[in-house]
Amino acid sequence: MTPSHFDRTADLMLEHLGSDGDPGWVYFRQFGEWELLFNLDNDRRLVPKLIGNLERRGLVETRRASAGMQVRMTDAGRKHCKAEEARLAAFALEYHILPLDDLPCPSDAKK
To answer: Measuring CA to CA, how many Å separate 105 from each of 4, 99, 100?
Structure first.
């Protein structure tokens, strides 16, 4: 991956981490299913590399626990996620993209 693609993939990982609010401390291994979408080169160290990228930018912090390495978002990471959500919302508004919740369901159609 080129550096800009690597940063973007790390940002996607951060967004995944914050997608259900702030989960607190999360084990690296919990990114296994998410990693399958992005690890096309079968890099065994992709998750630690992405987390290292986020940590260098001050968006997450890590710690070693007895069962493995853990990561959590910092205040800067939470702000980064909120800014990305706002950017995507503005993009959707500008291009008239409806959220999936607002789309009509085929079963709601009257016969």
So the answer is: 38, 13, 10
